[in-house]
Amino acid sequence: MHLQLLLLGGCWPDEPxxxxxxxxxxxxxxxxxxxxxxxxxxVPGREVAFGKRDAVAPExxxxxxxxxxxGFTPVERLAGGRAAVFTEHTIAFSLAVPxxxxxxxxxxxxxxxxxxxxxxxxxxxxxxxxxxxxGEYCPGEYSVNHDGRLKLMGVGQRLAKRAAHIGGVITVAHxxxxxxxxxxxxxxxxxxxRPATVGTLADIRSGVTTDDTLGALKAVFSxxxxxxxxxIHSDLVETxxxxxxxxxxxxxxxxxxxxxxxxx
Length: 264
Fold this sequence. Notes:
Layout: E1 2-7, H1 18-31, E2 37-42, E3 47-50, H2 52-55, H3 60-69, E4 73-76, E5 84-86, E6 90-98, H4 106-123, E7 129-130, E8 144-146, E9 150-159, E10 163-171, H5 175-189, H6 201-204, H7 210-224, E11 226-230, H8 234-240
Parallel strand pairs: 1-2, 1-11, 3-4
Antiparallel strand pairs: 2-6, 3-5, 6-10, 7-8, 8-9, 9-10
């Protein structure tokens, strides 16, 4: 398959929701045959990305507030189950591929992409495997972990008519920063999990950086796909920009103050 690789194509910390909107625009264009398969790799800002199950939970407003209090911007993402955390020490990936019938190839895509992630980690000297760690945050059978103990990557899918999007986040360094958001957000959502399952590549291989990890990812994907390197085009960003607000949590409705009693 031929892919265009949009290197570091993203990250607008002052425009929350724009990265999600951009992923949706690219998915729709790939589905319509207006773009080739597209892989986007980028280092995001500090965000808590909530899934659809979070957004319909009664505790959602409290979780959004907890994210903000921890210094993270709350956003809603295209795919995935529960809240995940993005920081400047993580790498986000977004892959949109054309498929005639994407529902029939869901598990094949998960197998393919997670296998590539495991191979990229091996280039960094980090052993990894696919599978859910008991008690992990945002649990999923296609998480990538180290030694069955530490979650290093979470992944989800979103389907369009003739394309599929598979995206996720790789934790590179600063486990403490991930926990700063995860602990209060999951407490607010009233979800049971084990903070000890949170880990990063640097916990296993000291000194690994986002640049190292991006290099390993680009090498592995280039070995597997025919890739044309490109940059994000401004017209894509402008198409996505009006949609960004739709991926932000609704602000709490203002309550009208009760009338003052006349005690005269």
